[in-house]
Amino acid sequence: MPIAQKIEGFLSASSWIRKMFEEGEKLRQIHGPDKVYDFTLGNPNVEPPEAFHRKLGQIAGNPLPGMHRYMNNAGYLETRQAVADVLAEETGKPVTPGHIVMTCGAGGGLNVVLKTLLNPGEEVIVPTPYFVEYRFYVDNHGGTIKEVPTAAGFQLDPQAIAAAVGPNTRAVIINSPNNPTGVVYPAQTLEALGRVLEEKEKELGKTIYLISDEPYAKIFYDGTAPPKVFKHIKHSLVVTSHSKDLALPGERIGYIAINPDIEDAALIFDGLVFCNRTLGFVNAPALIQRLVAPLQRESVNIEEYREKRDLLYNHLSGLGFDVIKPKGAFYLFPRCPIEDDVEFVRRAQKYNLLLVPGSGFGKPGYFRLSYCIDTQIIRNSLPAFTELAREFNL
Ligand code: PLP
After folding, report:
1. How confident is the model at residue 129 (pLDDT cuts 50, 70, 90)?
2. Which helix (H) or strand (E) holds 158?
3. Which of 233, 261, 295 is the last residue of a domain?
4. Based on the domain organization, do 153 and 35 belong to the same domain?
5. Which of 153, 163, 256, 348 could form a disulfide with 353 if both were Cys (CB 3.0 to 4.6 A apart)?
């Protein structure tokens, strides 16, 4: 066998988005790109804010000596200070550069956190549905995923999470605003989660870490900013990136923030820096660290995403699809009108609609649409959804 058996198994288990992408390429060749409605990828179609390009021009025009060299593996002090200042203001906690590690995106950051925290065989609880890569990231570091269903409306169920915690539990990963549902967890839910985790920690005599994956934190609608986990959960780490809020996914830039309330924050920081280095990332890209330092309060134009959300949500719910109106991120997660989500997604292809089955997110019976695509493509796709709904008698 040319590759490891485990990876061969993972390849087939994780291939949904890739399969749909390949299908899309085929359909685009046959029908032309404007006739194929590809809702599969979470790749922002908007451009980074103007301020990013201005800063890029300034740096390119005035190269500094040594700006491309290795640095402290945690990242530039200037960048970590900029991140810490904003987090301290938002959370009311004494966040310093000693709580911040710059990373290669949120994906890199999650791997660094999991490598730092997990002992072999320990469990990480994830509410379903979830970003499928968590499964592989946890496996990378010898852990296993324990799935816990969410409550009505895909909201977190703190009691169900508490019931799933056992002596082998090391961490819980949450993601709000959520991929794939677009749901945002309110402050009361985070507070309730903080309470039950603390009770479990006392009962079991060990620390359970809350890892909050937040790449969509600045992409929220209708004025409800997602609450800050540091305020509600003591043993928490935030992992985030500028892939979505500054539309820079190809640049691989993000950070980990350690809650200053954690007693062992300094040791965790040392562990994170070591793992950033030894996972081979070494440090987050130097040039982009300098670029994002002054942009910590910037984001892409959220109104563009809101318009796309409204267009698609109004049309689908009007057709009779059972779908929650997202409060953040750029995904919709409707229920399929038939049980078999894979069959549903296959039949949608007849109308040149490319969707991802909920099975790919640990939630069969649903499908995900990523609406970070051209608004005109969304408009063009609406009659295709109408025909799809008709086929299923909605
Ligand atoms: N977490 C979630 C929930 C995501 O949706 C993504 C990317 O789509 C990531 C993490 C990884 O993002 P990054 O590009 O910052 O590695």
Report:
1. very high
2. helix 158-164
3. 295
4. no
5. 348
